[in-house]
């Protein structure tokens, strides 16, 4: 490593190091004036110290990360979010972030990465929504897009721009994620068990979300993500039109019938692998 070479040569030179020679032999910078050469050597030592800290943080983060789909947040030593992303395999994606070859082209903010948070998910759609919500909540400086998604930039047929409830796989095998998207931009995710034990409460909560915007939780306007996904990769996703059910009781019956179908997510398995 450059740092080790510089320290070894400095030790050899004693109390009067030749910084111009160090800059030329170790850093590959020839002809630098004495003061500039001294600053270059000092900066190189600091940078290499930072690189070692970054490398050790990466080793620890990647060792602990699960090899499963999810969303993640890279944070600095004070817990401030630097970057939010999603991955099919969290461990593999985080290893890519901390690969040795990435260091020289690394954005300055990411060199301060000291830890990571993650959440495992059961589907691509959930990952997209969780990622969007975290970006708006944490405002990470490295993410380019930090505002709400704009439908004007997405090719979504007008027929899809309506309230919808989408059934998606959950990270818990015995459960399903019920993703609600409202035409006014609101969204929600409700995890419910496939055996129907929670459906009475959850159906009421979902109908309240769609029928009363005031009663619904205040969330970022991320429903364009759902509509865009349905228009493309999620074209075969199982969904329910909330305007096509009279009340929570009818919604409960509709969902119970769907959840009893063992092939509910047959098409989505391949889609989940693809992303």
Detailed description of the structure:
By secondary structure, the chain is of the alpha+beta class. The protein has 3 domains: 1-53, no CATH class; 65-145, 3-Layer(aba) Sandwich (GIY-YIG endonuclease), CATH 3.40.1440.10; 151-274, no CATH class. Helices cover 42% and strands 15% of the residues. It has helices at 2-13, 19-25, 34-64, 90-97, 124-138, 199-211, 223-231, 248-259, 266-274, and strands spanning 70-75, 81-87, 115-120, 164-169, 175-181, 187-193, 239-240. It has a 4-stranded antiparallel β-sheet, sandwiched between helices. Strands 2-1-3 form a 3-stranded antiparallel β-sheet, sandwiched between helices. Strand 4 (164-169) and strand 5 form a beta hairpin. Mean pLDDT is 87; it is low at 267-272.
Task: State the main characteristics.
single chain; alpha+beta; GIY-YIG endonuclease; 3 domains; four-stranded antiparallel sheet; three-stranded antiparallel sheet; 9 helices; 7 strands; 42% helix
The end-to-end distance, rounded to whole angstroms, is: 37 Å
- The overall average pLDDT, rounded, is 87
Give, in spatial order, the strands making up the sheet with the most strands: 6-5-4-7
Number of domains: 3
Order of helices and strands: HHHEEHEHEEEHHEHH
**Helix fraction bin:** 40-55%
Count of discrete alpha- or pi-helical segments spanning 4 or more residues: 9
Residue windows where pLDDT falls under 50 for at least 5 positions: 267-272
Radius of gyration: 26 Å
Largest sheet: 4 strands, antiparallel
Which class best fits the helix and strand makeup?
A: alpha+beta
How many strand units? 7
Percent range for β-strand residues: 5-15%
What's the shape? elongated
